Recover the amino acids of this structure.
């Protein structure tokens, strides 16, 4: 399995990265986790415009799903349209919310480009991947994911505050893509986001092979986030996510 970070900027795009989007490839199949603002541009540096085989959306905050609008245009009006509809696993309100974001009626909505399946906690197959979705702690319906193929696993936090479910999803994963939106401080709000220290604590509890800190908010000094993570009791490798970074898990 090959993991490419397309977008790792938290809450809005930064100068060097789109908002959240991760490309997972195995057995000639390409799965996106989230499709945040600006991601469709950077994605085309790595795969063709029409090469996305499936999409999972962690939640419906704009920084995780708004480029679905842009991709709807590409697949609905491109030169060889109609293109096959892309399976999308997303919170149940996604067809309505994305149609509203685009400015189109709910019927037919984005059905020309996408085939929506409502997410629920549990395990399902997406192409060659086994995907487990679990509810995490954020102000809206929000999922973390574990994606496995060929004995390797990557876990992705989505957006969450401290979460036992995230530890469960990430248990013994080769790679944890964990949000670290906050600079650490004593009075962090619950059920919203994590600091680097909290991300590392989740990585330690789950005994993951590698921790990549992501959802990095541009207004922070990212060296602080990395420094916070070094105090989370995790002994494995820790690094900051970077748009274009590739992790080969074999
Ligand atoms: Zn976010
Ligand atoms: Zn969010």
């Amino acid at each position: 399995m090959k993991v490419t970070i397309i977008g790792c900027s938290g809450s809005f795009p930064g100068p060097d990265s789109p908002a959240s989007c991760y490309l997972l490839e195995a057995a000639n199949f390409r799965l996106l986790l989230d499709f945040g603002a600006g991601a469709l541009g950077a994605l085309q540096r790595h795969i063709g415009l029409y090469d996305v085989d499936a999409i999972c959306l962690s939640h419906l905050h704009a920084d995780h799903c708004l480029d679905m609008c842009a991709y709807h245009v590409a697949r609905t009006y491109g030169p060889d349209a109609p293109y096959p509809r892309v399976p999308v696993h997303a919170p149940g309100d996604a067809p309505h919310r994305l149609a509203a974001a685009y400015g189109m009626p709910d019927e037919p909505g984005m059905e020309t480009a996408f085939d929506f399946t409502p997410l629920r906690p549990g395990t399902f197959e997406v192409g060659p991947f086994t995907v487990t979705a679990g509810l995490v702690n954020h102000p809206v319906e929000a999922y973390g994911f574990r994606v496995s193929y060929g004995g390797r696993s990557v876990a992705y936090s989505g957006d969450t505050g401290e979460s036992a479910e995230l530890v469960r999803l990430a248990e013994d994963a080769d790679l944890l893509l964990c949000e670290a939106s906050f600079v650490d401080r004593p009075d962090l709000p619950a059920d919203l986001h994590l600091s680097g220290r909290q991300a590392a604590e989740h990585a330690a509890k789950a005994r993951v092979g590698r921790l990549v800190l992501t959802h990095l908010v541009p207004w922070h000094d990212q060296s602080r986030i990395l420094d916070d993570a070094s105090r989370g009791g995790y002994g494995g490798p820790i690094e900051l996510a970077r748009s274009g970074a590739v992790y080969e898990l074999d």
The mean pLDDT is 98. Helices lie at 39-43, 62-65, 67-77, 94-102, 164-170, 196-206, 222-229.
